[in-house]
Amino acid sequence: MSDVGKVGAQVSTAGTSSSYWSGQTKFEKLGNGTDFGKIVESSIKQQGFHKRRLENWRSQWVQKQKSLKELNSQMVTLSSALKTMDSIGEFMGRTTTVTAPDYISVIADSTAPVSPYAVEINQLACNDIWTSAVGFPSEETVISHTASKVSISCGGKTANIDVPAGTTVRGLVSMLNATEELKGRMSVEAVKTGNDYRLKFSSLKMGDANRITFNSSTTLLPLSPIGMKHLQQGQNSKIKIDGFPSGTDKWIERASNTITDAAQGLTLTLKSITSPQVVIVNVNTDTDKVIENVRNFVEQVNIVRKALRDISKVDTAKDKEKGSVLTGNYGVQLAAQRFKDITATKGSGFNNYDSSTGTGDKYNTLRTLGIETETDQGSPDFGLLKIDEDKFQKAMKDNPEGVAKLFAADYETGTSSPNFTVKSLIKGVTKPGTHEISYTISGGKITSATINGKPARISGWEITANDMSGMGMAVRVDNQNDGTYTGTAGIKTGKIIEMVETLKDMTNAKTGILNIIDNNYKDIVKNIDKKLDYEKERLDKLEKTLKAKYARLDAVLGQYSGKMQMLQGQIAKLGSGNSK
């Protein structure tokens, strides 16, 4: 065996520290002074190119996921904000004024017609109140010296109570209040009036039907009909609105002084009698609330539109195009387009406006209100909604109700013909929009009918849609003369309703486009992680192999270095001997 082979054999067993298996191999820079540690480090760095590329790639996909989640979260926030004003009642309020607020106060919701109302109050509703005619020295006074009976009626219920001998005033009060038939209808208390206590009976509800009756079958004399004193008679409130109902003895009667069903959208709180005079209540549109909600809509929508713009824009600065984190992403492009469609298109079920006849919906797109998309690419608001204040204020003065409907109409129905009426529909099933209606009447009955060009079911004077878009919609025929009739039935939904439904679809945890793409990204990241794990394992093995290889080489060079030093020493001695 050659010297090199011998040395190599020795190194393989003795020259390499066993510690290199743990990655702690030391190189002594023997031989020619080469730093093998640096060589290993450089080799691993070069071999780690693919690992670094995978890590960079992974970070890009993780950033895409993060951006999608943020966008999804912003859409959910937008949906929540819009749901606070997704009905006419929430979007468009009413204001009221009263000529005599000491007599009546009024609250109006958005369904109340804008109009003055003349209210006459003839009578206020009252509870029924009685007191015992005689008093008792204290609450511990015995009121029933012998076994007796008490029979009391209130609110359609009668309580027949057996009162034991020796029952005190306090005991009788407790007994009556605990009687099941009187609970929630009447209360009893012992009230101190000067030097004695009197029993007070009060109906808990106002109105004629809640009067208290002390029945003649009562044997406890203080509570017999002749032993009681009537302080206040339970009665209904009585009012007229705009002279209705006519007749001096005809009134709208309610068992309360708060009336919610006498006029559409109005809640009246009666305070004092006015009859025979009237109080004027004026109901007007709360235009400030409409304006506030329109601005809120634009502001909230712009938050999401800005997010969509920023994560998909292309930066062309310095003549070099650079895409954002989700530039070209199909899901983002789809979401952005759907947002543009909602804000640019006509409202579902809204009709075109004919200025010559004044028919149709004058405000049927956001553009007609002065709300458009900023198209100036140099503007920081590029791609966002902006409001033309002059045009918007003009629309508000012209028809605030029409403005509110464009935003918050909630499946409002209408037809283009007086010959038929939309009788019913099913929210969430019947599609908003315009539906074509056609039917023929012959011999006093409907002989054929179509909705959206497809045969409809006929039942008496009603036709019901069979096609998917009109499913759940029933149309009542009002003109029953023979002939063929056509027209359209419109089902209006405002931009807020349309936006909420779109957001619900896009953010659905299972079927939403953003979540589907996010799940795809998760799979991509998982696959990258598997490749990274493989690369990390490969590089770890390579590093151990290289360290072992160079450790052996280092040891060989070390031994040769030792021999060289020995030979140099011997040569030096020989040289010194010759000189002698």
Textual characterization of the structure:
This protein is an alpha+beta fold and 580 residues long. The protein contains 11 helices and 30 strands. The strands form 9 sheets. Strands 1-17-3-13-14 form a 5-stranded antiparallel sheet. Strands 22-30-24-25-26 form a 5-stranded antiparallel sheet. The relative contact order is 0.14. Residues 1-25 have low confidence and may be disordered.
Q: Give the spatial strand order of the biggest sheet.
A: 1-17-3-13-14
Rg: 45 Å
- The proportion of residues in beta strands is 25-35%
Look at the structure and give the mean pLDDT.
Answer: 87
The largest sheet is:
5 strands, antiparallel
Count of extended strands: 30
Structural class: alpha+beta
First-last Cα distance = 39 Å
Global outline: extended
Total helices: the number is 11
Helix amount, in percent? 25-40%
Low-confidence stretches: 1-25
